[in-house]
Amino acid sequence: MKPKVAFICVHNSCRSQMAEALGKLFYSEIFESYSAGTELRDTINQDAARIIKELYKIDMNETHKSKLLTEIPEVDIVIKMGCNVICPFLPARHIEDWGLEDPTGKDDKEFIKTARTIEEKLKDLAMRIQNNKINLK
Fold first, then answer.
1. Per-residue pLDDT tens over the stretch 9-48
2. What is the CATH number of domain 4-130?
3. Which of 16, 31, 35, 103 has the most C-beta neighbours closer than 10 Å?
4. The pTM is what?
């Protein structure tokens, strides 16, 4: 059974949404991707949506919405995106913090950098899952 991975931050509108989209795009055969937060936003970050569409041809506005932690299934792995405030808590067998800076309000270069960093970290996560480097027992 594929492990379920939750990408979480407070607002679930930018970094966690990008991670969910890219996780589904590149690694859906290795793990299931979800994202959630503790506060809802009416829309996901439009700069993030535009950059993900430009770089990866994914329309997050069609497939994604801001979700609360209670709206996703129980997960095996929690990835905190990097909160400079109190990060949400979600129980899981494995928890790590990627410590990503929020690009909200910054220029496209920062959003692209964030997307590429998430892509690299997802690749590493997928490899660790495949090589049983993350204990999910």
1. 888 999 999 999 999 999 999 999 999 998 888 999 999 9
2. 3.40.50.2300
3. 16
4. 0.95
